[in-house]
Design a protein that fits this description.
Helix content: 10-25%
Strand order of the largest sheet: 1-2-3-4-5-6-7
Order of helices and strands: EEEEHEHEEEEEEEEHH
Structural class: alpha/beta
Radius of gyration: 16 Å
Strand content: 25-35%
Number of strands: 13
Mean pLDDT: 92
Distance between the termini: 10 Å
């Protein structure tokens, strides 16, 4: 199993499906399990941290009109510009996501434009700044939490990123989402608030397990 597959996707896996959206793993066989999402928050479809894959545009169009492409983490610029140009929409990013795109760019404030969907800053470190989306039901994350093998350990269905376990994203504490989508791995669609609480409260003391899992995923 490769850690990361940078070739062209041929057979993406569709994940995290619900009435208002879906996710996809362009390379389901890779250890990194990079995931992208398209979500209709009620005012149109937002494409989040996307990687290209065949057939995805058609699935997105079935959801409704695309409002924009969102990048929540600078390392997740991925194929955002390509999606934005194909759908003729801007790339939206919080001001702390420092990245240039070969497409029109607009800033995200505390909420999506003309919307009650919150844009939360989950990580604010000198080397790592990251946002999330939350509308009270759906929580969309980038790297702060994940479900790939090197994230979730022990009883966790989601886990804090191994590099953040000493300082987990406490801003997420107290949220009660019905579903959680992540940038690596298949998200959680049931008892999501419980999975979030388990991930955050056990982040520090399960750190050795997480680091060991990370080493195993490499070797």
């Amino acid at each position: 199993m490769p850690i990361r597959d940078d070739g062209s996707a041929t057979d993406p896996a569709i994940v995290d499906q619900f009435d208002g959206g879906f996710g996809w793993l362009p390379h389901p066989e890779e250890a990194m399990q990079r995931a992208s999402h398209a979500v209709d928050f009620g005012d149109g479809v937002w494409i989040v941290d996307p990687l290209d894959a065949p057939g995805i545009d058609e699935r997105i169009e079935e959801l409704g009109e695309v409002r924009g492409v969102i990048v929540l983490l600078d390392r997740h610029e991925r194929d955002a510009a390509a999606f934005a140009n194909r759908f003729d929409v801007p790339v939206f990013r919080p001001p702390y996501v420092d990245r240039e795109f070969d497409a029109p760019v607009e800033w995200l404030g505390s909420h999506l434009p003309d919307s009650d969907v919150q844009v939360l800053q989950t990580v604010d470190l000198p080397f790592w700044k990251e946002g999330a989306l939350y509308d009270g039901e759906t929580l969309v994350l980038a790297d702060a939490l994940g479900a790939a093998g090197y994230f979730a350990v022990g009883p966790e269905r989601l886990g804090v990123h191994p590099m953040l376990r000493l300082s987990p994203p406490t801003k997420l504490g107290g949220l009660t989402p019905e579903r959680i989508f992540v940038g690596h791995g298949e998200g959680v669609g049931y008892r999501a608030a419980e999975a979030l609480d388990v991930a955050l409260t056990g982040a520090r003391w399960r750190l050795p397990q997480a680091w060991l899992a990370g080493l195993r995923s490499i070797f």
